[in-house]
Amino acid sequence: MIRAIVVGADRVAPNGDTANKIGTYQLAITARYHGCQFIVAAPTTSVDLYTKSGADIVIEERYEAEILVQTGFERQGVLEGRLKRVEVQVAPVGTRAWNPSFDVTPAELISAMDGQYLANKQINVQYAFKKDAKGERHGSAAERLLAAQAQKNDRTL
After folding, report:
1. DSSP string across 21-62
2. Whole-angstrom Cα distance, residue 97 to residue 93?
3. pLDDT digits (tens, 9 = 90+) for 78-110
4. Which of 50, 37, 48 minimizes the C-alpha distance to 118?
5. For residue 102, which of 21, 46, 47, 42 has the smallest C-alpha distance?
6. pLDDT digit string, tens, across residues 29-83
7. CA dist., res. 91 & res. 70, Å (int)
8. What count of other Cβ atoms lies within 10 Å of the Cβ of residue 49?
9. 40 pairs with which residues across the strands?
10. How far is Cα 78 from Cα 134, in angstroms, rounded to an integer?
């Protein structure tokens, strides 16, 4: 059984929203749906004090051809022992694609941030420390997981 999903972050806004590689937001939704922890481990260099929230984070876009065109080897050439690289349009001509490099995970979906890095610089990220159901404060994602494990008397993650 999965108890936690741990990801990094390329950018952390002061309100706790994070930006990371595409697919991170989907992992946060998956964690919420399955009732497991979603933890972000981020160094202080990821905190952007000039960005108020995830809505303000500029998302880099990759070339749409990465989605619309595939590269491979010509089949006949492979059979004959000569490799000829070809590009194949896999979408109808004129199709457009949006290909973001990052997505934004809202703070509400984040169970905890690894405060080990954030607390050392005293950066005010409200989600760096979370209180558990008993109101106990845990200073890092690792501490939070260890406390939960100790309660369950289980040493596996």
Report:
1. ETTHHHHHHHHHHHT-EEEE---GGGB-TT--SGGGPPPPB-
2. 12
3. 778 888 889 999 999 999 999 999 999 999 999
4. 48
5. 21
6. 999 999 998 989 888 788 888 889 999 999 999 999 999 999 988 888 777 888 8
7. 10
8. 11
9. 7, 113
10. 63
Interatomic CA distance for residues 120 and 21, integer angstroms: 25
Q: Mapping DSSP to helix (H, G, I), strand (E, B) and coil, where does residue 129 land?
A: coil
Token pair recorded at residue 111: 């169970």
The residue with tokens 């934004």 is 104
CB 39 within 8 A of CB 31: no
CB of 57 closer than 8 Å to CB of 11? yes
Token pair recorded at residue 101: 């490099």
Residue 4 sits at the vertex; the CA angle it makes with 3 and 8, to the nearest 5 degrees, is 170
Respond yes or no: is residue 10 known to be catalytic: yes
Q: For the purposes of burial, counting CB atoms within 10 Å of the CB of 85, is it exposed (0-12), middle (13-18) or buried (19 or more)?
A: exposed
What tokens appear for 116 in the block? 């080990």
Helix, strand or coil for residue 151?
A: helix
